[in-house]
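From the shared-data thread, chain only:
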Amino acid sequence: LIAVPLQDFIEKRNISVHVLHEVKAINPRQKTLTVYDHPNERTLEVQYDRLVIATGARAVVPPIPGADHERVFKLRTLDDGKAIHAFIDRHQPKQALIVGGGYIGLEMAEALTARGMQVSIVEMLPHVMPLMDADMAEVIQEELTRQKVQVYADVSVKEIIAQGEQLQAVLADGRKLTSDLILLSVGVRPNTELAESCGVELGPTGAIRVNDRMQTNIRDILAAGDCAEAKHLVTNKPAYIPLGTTANKQGRVAGDNATGRASRFKGIVGTSGFKVFDLEAAMTGLSSQELARLQIPFKAVKIKSRTRAHYYPNPARIHVKLLFSPQDGRLYGGQIVGGEGSAKRIDVLATALHQKMTVADLAELDLSYAPPFAPVWDALLIAANQAVKQVRK
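Structure, as tokens:
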């Protein structure tokens, strides 16, 4: 109700919206919902023909002693953001500690630095942005260092201790970090409790199991968005990658099928992008870690090039990594880190994954050329040609 005002739903889309109404139970046999009307403090029974569960996800709060302190925040909802903003305006913190070096952690590192704070990040895995390969994350790490963000990797926070108006985070290795504010950004978990309570099955990822029509195991109950799984088009297995793009597409398909219009959601390749200070980064498909975990043989190439012709003003560096089959060259995944103009190139790789293209196919693409936007040999073409050389003949 932020992007689209409540009145627009009612007046322009003919959708009845009941805010401050909480669904307490689902009865699939009677096709009814038990709803609590908070403003009027009453319980209602609502009938449905088809039901779409879109309960989203919530921020994970790790079981760290002291994580419930008023100076410890999470960031998932607009209210979370408002609370952080109000705290900063009121207390003018000088030091901030971020627990978790993923999307939210890295973007908040930039935001808090812009508010004048000295920022530190603690990441329990070996490097920031654990979804990326270590050699690509290293480029991001260098940018964080350049921006004076301190990173503590491969270590976890064991305890948070209040010390007057400051907090002390005790790391597993004994080090102690003092801060005025702590942000927890260690991922999200699907909200599935309501669905489970009425017999809806979860998949292997812990999110709601759905088919390509977003239907659950219970007749006339569908699910979509951050509470539901999606099929990964590279592995052909269920995946849980909660992104806004996926939620929008799944919601459209669920809406179609709930209203009698046949529609299918083919799947995802996990395409995402983000910004870290002066760097753009993006990824799609599978990483080296995922391929190794799945025991899929692969090879990788990584190249460094420019986003523009070298003679054009202000060309930025761009790093491209491709992961592919050594047998037939099928593309498995790709990662990009670089300056302005880098990240959206990931969409070419996402398209290639959807079409099950090989690195040879990628090398032959007729990509656009103009000095302000790309060299004659775009970084993607350079990487693809390097990959072709490693495919068995």
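The chain has four domains: 1-48, 59-188, 204-263, 272-388.
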